[in-house]
Design brief:
The complex is a heterotrimer of chains A (104), B (351) and C (173). Chain A has 104 residues and is mainly alpha-helical. Chain A contains three helices and no strands. Chain A has a domain of 67 residues: Helix Hairpins, CATH 1.10.287. In chain A, helix 1 runs antiparallel to helix 2 and helix 2 runs antiparallel to helix 3. Chain C is globular and about 60 Å long. Classes of the chains: A mainly alpha (104), B mainly alpha (351), C mainly alpha (173).
Amino acid sequence: MSVPEPTLNSYLLLSAVLFCIGTAGVFLRRNLITILLSIEIMLNAVNLTFVAFDRYHGSVDGQIIVFFVMTVAAAEAAVGLAIVIALFRHKETLNPDAFTSLKW
Amino acid sequence: MDRVLLAQFIVIGFTFFMLLNSAAILVYMERKVAAFVQQRYGPYLVGPKGLLQPLADIIKLMFKEELRPKAADSLLFYLAPVLSATAAFAAFAVVPFGADTTLFGLLDRPIHLAAADVNVGLLVIFAITSMGVYGIVLAGWSSNSKYSLLGGLRSSAQMISYELSYGLSFAAVIMLAGSLSLHTIVDHQAGYWLGFIPKWYLFVQPLGFFIFLTAGVAETNRAPFDFPEAEQELVAGYHTEYSSMSFALFFLAEYVNMVTVSAVATDLFLGGWHGPFLPTIARWLGWQADSLGWIWFLAKVGFLLFFYIWMRWTLPRYRYDQLMEFGWKWLLPASVLNLLVTAGVVIYMGW
Amino acid sequence: MDAVLFWILAAVMVIASLLVIGQRNPMYSVLLLIVSFGALSGLYVLLGAPFVAAIQIIVYAGAIMVLFLFVVMLLNVPTEDPPTGYHARLLGGAGPRRFGAVLALVLAVELFWAFWRYLQPAPMPAGSSRASATVLEIGTKLFKDYAFAFEATSVLILVAMVGSIVLARRETK
């Protein structure tokens, strides 16, 4: 029984699938926290692409960029959650359809 | 099967088995040491000098009724102690407890005496300790009770606050040793200065050792930092609603975490398995010089565990806000200072 | 052995991510995402990046997800009501939602078309995947070539800290 060896393409395909899943989550979910989680899925898919190319070319630049992406994701998650808390205090719901005061 | 592979599997099984036993021994040791500190006899009825007390405790815990509050989320309720215990055991996987050994010449090449030897070993320990927070958070949440939720939140906030000082204090050791692998760090601590002072990092980094041990005690929610699970305050905090084997798993996780912190402190600061008299005895017996090193390792870990228990029954506990203030305002700047001074010394004295 | 591990970890990751966006209860979503990150960390080890794998667990699964969990627990986030009737169909719902679903579909189709058209056989370099980048190389590059980015990131974290405290503060009456 031979399992096909993973090539660069398998990693890139996996990363694309995860990115699509994340995008679908952002568009289709009606809960602010789940939308933030889907954004994290997208960021991780990109990280996987970076590290896969890193291994293919034999350098470490990709891993350093992944390091920075993780740091930025942490900062963004913190600020995003603070905004979610502030919004929840205002309207007692996490459905993004409820925040329509800027609509014309 | 390849002999070396078989030997490694045996070491893994042995490590797991010894961790379980160490939890049982710690139950007994805690009650006896507590008793002697409080000037009374500890357990002395069950077995000679009360040595079978842990067995009696385990049997009692197994026969208790397994309760679950009706409104508790059952999947998370049963998952939480499993997560805690798994993280506790997994963290010990990369800790080496003896020198390289060929098991008396049975193997062709020496193996490391650790369940796994990774070259980023310290980061793995740190990562798995971070995962241990989830067991507590989920336990607090899924019990669906105010005491548990508050206890769980406080406990996990405390753990993640002290993880910073924990990490920075072993970053200084990494700078001195130049490697993340625990095996290499212990190897750098062999030998003596001036013939009699061992080259342990304890003597190079006394502040680092103190910070590491304090942060380790706070990480395991023990001794003066156990406000979230103190009886007078929060009715046992996050494990209020647990009984029988789930509670036993939390108990086990706490003791195994203690053992892991002590073992890592021994490897990082106290020279691991190096010590004065045993190499000469081993050479006299015709074995390799370091093959009896695990005895010193056990002695050092045992001393640190005794210190843990001694601290618990001697010091009053910190209030929660005092605890958080200590962690952020005192311990973290101290560990940053330690790191800076170590970096300066390493650069200018070319360690 | 590595091949089998890759397929298992990839399957775990995709299934966990699908369940994350499909769950009603946000608590379960967070936990499933942690499982997904664990699988991703395993994939990083297979790709010869143990440092990034450890950092993934420490930072993402150990800190960011704990933050999410705290928010979910403290806000007592209500389970999302299942959409009924008109809103229940995937391409139904309000205008933006329908448009969003179509966009996600378009993205998926586009990506797969790009793969189909331009894929060339690109095997991974031979040699054990354990021949990994040492932390020394990463550290040297980080502090020499990317030193400015490193300092800028630290300022970014400071700004994020101050910002999140100010945003989440209760308004003083």
